[in-house]
Automatic annotation (TrEMBL):
Native organism: Rubus argutus (Southern blackberry)
Any one GO molecular function term: potassium ion transmembrane transporter activity
Any Pfam family the entry gives: K_trans
Residues in K+ potassium transporter integral membrane domain copies: 54-538
Keywords for this protein: Ion transport, Membrane, Potassium, Potassium transport, Transmembrane, Transmembrane helix, Transport
Lineage of producing organism: Eukaryota, Viridiplantae, Streptophyta, Embryophyta, Tracheophyta
Family: Belongs to the HAK/KUP transporter (TC 2.A.72.3) family.
Domain K+ potassium transporter C-terminal stretches: 551-787
Protein name, UniProt field: Potassium transporter
Keyword Transmembrane helix: yes
Compartment list: Cell membrane; Membrane
Amino acid sequence: MELQMATNEDTGDKGGVWVLDQQLDQPMDEEAKRLRNMYREKKFSTLMLLQLGFQSLGVVYGDLGTSPLYVFYNTFPNGIGDPEDLVGALSVIIYSLTLIPLLKYVFIVCRANDNGQGGTFALYSLLCRHAKIKAIPNQDRTDEDLTTYSSSTFGEQSFAAKTKRWLEGHALVKSTLLILVLIGSCMVIGDGILTPAISVLSAVGGINVRHSQISNEVVVLFAVVILVLLFSMQHQGTDKVGWLFAPIVLLWFLLIGGIGMFNIWKYDSSILKAFSPLYVFRFFKKGGKDGWTSLGGIMLSITGTEALFADLSHFPVPSIQIAFTCVVFPSLLLAYSGQAAYLMKHSDHVHGAFYLSIPDSIYWPVFVVATAAAVVASQATITATFSLVKQALALGCFPRVKVVHTSRKYRHQIYIPEVNWIVMVLCIAVTAGFKNQNQIGNASGTAVCIVMLVTTLLMILVMILVWHCHWVLVLIFTGLSLIMEGTYFSAVLLKVNQGGWVPLVISAAFFIIMYVWHYGTVKRYEIEVHSKVSMAWILGLGPSLGLVRVPGIGLVYTELASGVPRIFSHFITNLPAIHSVVVFVCVKFLPVCTVPEEERFLVKRIGPKNFHMFRCVARYGYKDLHRKDDDFEKKLFDSLFMFVRLESLMEASSDSDLSSLLDQQIKQSGDGLFGNNSDPYSVVDLSIASGDSIVPADSPLGANNAMSSAHQATSQAEIDDIEFLNNCKDAGVVHIMGNTVVRARRNSKVWKKIAIDYLYAFLRKICRENSVMFNVPHESLLNVGQIFYV
């Protein structure tokens, strides 16, 4: 085995990456694959799947389950003229639930989750791993060795390879794809505003159904009070009451299913003829424009379907499928059929049809459960909104906001104060402004329909690049999806002036914020890449860097994963001294849901040893959080010390000693230094293990027998290096951050000046500073100002 030092030709970085020129045997290759597959494959017993399916009811299906509260009223706001129209509408509802939530989402789209995460950004991240379409190209080849970084290969002449080259070769296509993702995400935020409004208002509307003397203003006031309480309690998280969600939603489904069966038996069992697809054809043939317009109300029967995918969380897909097919789907079919049976005998009761069809003896218990289910459904959409904003934040598509982790047990439970209060104000404004379900329903239908269309377009690429489906299957899926969703979209467009404009306005505002922030971030990254400091210039300064090296460690934060940032040259040319040890820290987010703690940090040495310069890349997924109790600084230094130890041992160990050392480290860490990479010529970052899979900095690299295999001279050199780093650490750590101001050039176009000089500058001014996001102590922070013209 030959040990070589690899040099980064672009940056001059040395000593950070070692290449093991060794042909690994087949057993090691299979073992690496087995370890990676163990992480990805999660085996669940039947009992566990049933338990998870029960729990998923309270998280995933609340929004979809509360739709029977308002669907028929929004479908026939002017009353039911002909009973055949009611049968046709029920038939359309039945087959819409069958084709879109059941077949498309539960059995197809949910399989496209990103390690358990759903939603538009999860699909986009999945695509970013299979094609180079990410706008900020900060990924490295070593990132692909992560256990959570799954990608696939395909033949050069395959349809998938041609599609990939087409995507990567056209900047306009990549920009269009990002715009689609942002539009879908903004519509999800809009749905997060509208769903609590219509769900809670419809649920509490049961008050004046039985007591007509109570005015609608009182109902609206009651709904607003509930919404204020709901949003005000978000900072507490759902840990204490979350266990109630699943029983409440299960009880709700059992109630609406049971009431539906009772109504079918009592009023009109012939309504079951709506299960014949013939009545779908009759509905469109007879209804004309009025029938087409009523599709906007029928669309509400499948609202919550996109939230189903966005709220996947960590529930395995089989548990989602069991819950939907065994509980949700039959309960919804019975509920809608029961209401239709009641309306066949009471066609003038379409307003408040759900509550009027409830038997008197259980009216108020059902009202209480309905209100509780509406609150649970609202909570699910609010949580989905927080999760989506967190994903957008990680991918550079949202201004920096405070993200609070509300649970120590569940990583996905977060709270974002700024977003919470904005959504609350807008939700209350919609509820108090419209005061009725009809217009809010039109608005909600528009948002959900657009999200579904975006998901369909993204799924086309997932089927090609990730699943490698035959183009015929892709064509069938695309054709059926676009026919159904395009039909609904054409119907909701007819109701834009009846409330459908609300999500368009809200989404447009969020889209401008997200796109302008992303545009400014990309421009700033591009200018930093082009203005990197030459390594030859750094080496020409000598070990002292032309300054006085004072005791201490300087952590220079940069967005660059390679090369020396311009901020460093700006720093050393304006100040007379620099710290004895300089570490360039790059915190970057990858298109994966999470990065395991033991694979978080990568450390390199920059320049010769006597320069005492390092680079540490901290990698995060879009679900990972910087928490105050994470002790980021300690983990960074642990990784740095481990790097120095491995570097010293590798430099002086003989072939046999090094092989023994590597084998022992592999056994200790489980994953080994190879980071689960099956490539026999893989590049090994010396900090590939950190956190749990390495021995802490104060331990002599595991066991004494591993140390004894190294040369005594190496041990002394290692001790000296570690002692030097510890002394510098004790002398003080300073966090150096660039306060970068981005401005448009004088000859820039007007729209660019508006975007950069006004909108982006305003967003940077009101958002949180990087130091706050990284939990940097104020007393150890040093800001270095610089201006970039783009």
